[in-house]
Design goal:
The complex is a heterodimer of chains A (619) and B (206). Chain A has one domain (2-554, 603-618): Cytochrome C Oxidase, Chain A, CATH 1.20.210. Chain A is built from 20 helices and two strands. Chain A has helices at 12-21, 25-53, 64-98, 107-126, 144-147, 152-180, 193-224, 239-272, 279-292, 308-320, 322-336, 345-368, 370-376, 380-410, 416-442, 459-489, 527-533, 556-573, 581-600, 610-618; strands at 548-550, 606-608. A two-stranded antiparallel ribbon of chain A has the order 1-2. The longest helix of chain B is centred in the middle third of the chain and has 33 residues, at 96-128. Classes of the chains: A mainly alpha (619), B mainly alpha (206). Chain A binds chain B through residues 105-106, 168, 172-173, 175-176, 179-181, 206-211, 213-215, 217-218, 221-222, 225-229, 231, 233-237, 240, 243-244, 247, 596, 599-600, 602, 604-605, 607, and chain B through 3, 7, 21, 24-25, 28-29, 32-33, 35-37, 39-40, 43-44, 46-47, 50-51, 54-56, 132-140, 142-143, 158, 161-162, 165, 174, 178.
Amino acid sequence: MSTMVATNKRSFGSVLWDYLTTVDHKKIAILYLVAGGFFFIVGGLEAMAIRWQLVTPMNDFVSAGLYNELITMHGTKMIFLAAMPLIFAFMNAVVPLQIGARDVAFPFLNSLGFWLFLFGGIMLNVGWITGGAADAGWTAYAPLSTTSPGEGVDYYVLGLQISGAGTLIGGINFLVTIVNMRAPGMTYMRMPLFTWTAFVASALILFAFPALTVGLFLMMFDRLFGSGFFDPNMGGNSVIWQHLFWIFGHPEVYILALPAFGIFSEIIATFSRKRLFGYSAMVFATVLIGFLGFMVWAHHMFTVGMGPAANSIFAVATMAIAIPTGIKIFNWLFTLWGGNIQINTAMLWSLGFIPTFTLGGMTGVMVAAASADYQFHDSYFVVAHFHYVIVGGVVFALFAATHYWWPKMFGKILNETLGKITFWFFFIGFHMTFFIQHFLGLMGMPRRYWVYKEGQGLDLGNAISTAGAFLMAIGTIVLLYNVIITSVKGEKVGGDPWGARTLEWAIPSPPPFYNFKQLPLVRGLDPLWIEKTEGRDGMTPAEPIGDIHMPNNSFLPFIMSLGFFIAGFGFIYQKYDLAWLSLVFIGMGIALGSMLMRSVKDDLGYHIHKEDLVKEAKE
Amino acid sequence: MSEHDVLNPKEMPLNPEKATLEGKNKFIGFWFFLGGETVLFASLFGTYLALNGSTNGGSSSQELFGLELVFIMTMLLLTSSLTSVYAMYHMKNNDFKKMQIWLGITVALGLGFLGFEIYEFYHYIHHYEFTLRSSAFGSAFYTLVGFHGGHVVFGLSWIIALMIRNAKRGLNLYNAPKFYIASLYWHFIDVVWVFIFTVVYLMGVL
């Protein structure tokens, strides 16, 4: 194929077209990384505005209304548009390589999932420029959300609907990839832990997101078509939204946290030069957390008035999750124990994660105690708790993964000195910002209020918290600088810069677009490490060199997502003027038309020929 | 061997829908998708059960529902599921013509179901003023049953598109998985209807 030798400089237009149409999981990973990173920075700026508003009592940096929009968009953006896609970035970049596959099961759907996420993410933010973003909190409880004026919450509903569809598609894709595409010898109990956690997280996506889909549809009908699901005046019940939201929302926490656990498991094993301690217990704990994750949603609703029986059941189920999570914490510690530990940036994040996440887990058990939760509920104690879990668990993992897999994705190691500077600024800043918030909450500071009064003992704590936020911002800026400086000046590295254990390090960095010239023969857990200990350079191939079947690029996923995006505007604005329904027809026409086109037009892919592979090897 | 020869073997395998890796992926991926769809409908059923008594002073399910019409609709849809099984039987025997005929009957039965459903909705709206906006019960009813109806429309369009697209070239290993998962989808729609028939209509007239 001619694309194989096209290593010379290409024009901007051709690179852009390549990324718009790509179905290669490694390029889609980069798209997720860039888009997720962008939303992470925007969400971070919103967080800075929130902290600046709270730096002194009765501050007037932002108005009450704008403050509501800031907290809503910060939460929604960080969960759906930053954490999820960044997790997807690493799942895309790594999982197919770790199981020895040439691509995901559905390359076309992989691309569709990304473009749906991106257009949904843009839609969510359109409210900022049309006169008000969503302002009902990231949980969008009815009736606050159903009665919120303007189109902010409509953008929230439609944006999440579109990007949620993309996430669901991505989840199914990874499930099938891991079930069907593993290399010869890669049994389930030989899969690296990151692949395992990606697998369980994908299953959680599959069974959790449809509940959000329904919740969003009901809210859309209530807001735009006059139905009465959440409106007591029509016999509706606003608590239904809370149930649907949290049936999705609690598994969502594990959708984020489990891959984070997987990332740390890879990094800690690699840099301790030891096999992961208690591998099978780790797998068991992962599956158990995934299962229990569905049993606990109502612990977000202890104060709704479900009664002592329901509260007790959900409290006990919630506390039970501490057991498999504790198994994991101890297994990481035992992996470190007696290991030949090398401390670099990825490892620093992992070591910082263990105590930080343990703190978040501990406050988790505290808020799980239903009677005590009446005191904690809607206070800064809860804000501190979930930031310890989501930042201390997920964001630390994303930073760690960025450093660990950057050489695999881009062929260069991120600068270690700058990396360590980022770590220390962010780590210290994080604890400064959020540790004190536990006490602010216990002293009675409620969440989501835009001001607090002087002389209530909240001034110093809030000032410290804001100062910490600035340290985190500095850390993030250093990381951005690191990315730029590494891209410009960094030295190229080989396939296995860390002396690692799993399959992705057995091929060049960045990998060729077909990943494995010959599928590897997997002979145990940590397959590359096994080969190395037996004195071999790389993997033993499981097949002779032969033709490789590859999928064709396609522009349809972009067009399809654009169609839904256009239809979204029609759905929103038809509430003012039915003429806007024309946009619904145009948008849905584009989307359904491209689906029809995808169905009727054969897409057989192409082959890389054996002779070309041999010739390439000689060059 | 070119792609054409691979996908058009001289002798079709026993399970043409699972003979290629793409086919296997589609097969298992679609089962996963149906798992997600199950949660989707479970959420809608849960919402319906929470709101089916909230009539807001309007018509109740006892006043609205008549089992005669719904019985006919149920029979149409159940039969269409059976005929789609026949279609898949002929697909596995590599008898494309008979498969098309049975798929055609499936589509006809599905269209019949859809016609009755449209009539039913029309009837409720014009004779009882029972709409999406009249009560929370109305919202829940039209959303649950309407989502199912939407699935029927999508499933019919899907099967028709496949029938027309492949009418001339017959069966091969590329389109066999497509026919197969479309029929899986059709079965799923049927299963959901069984639950709607029970939860909405049977429990509604009691």
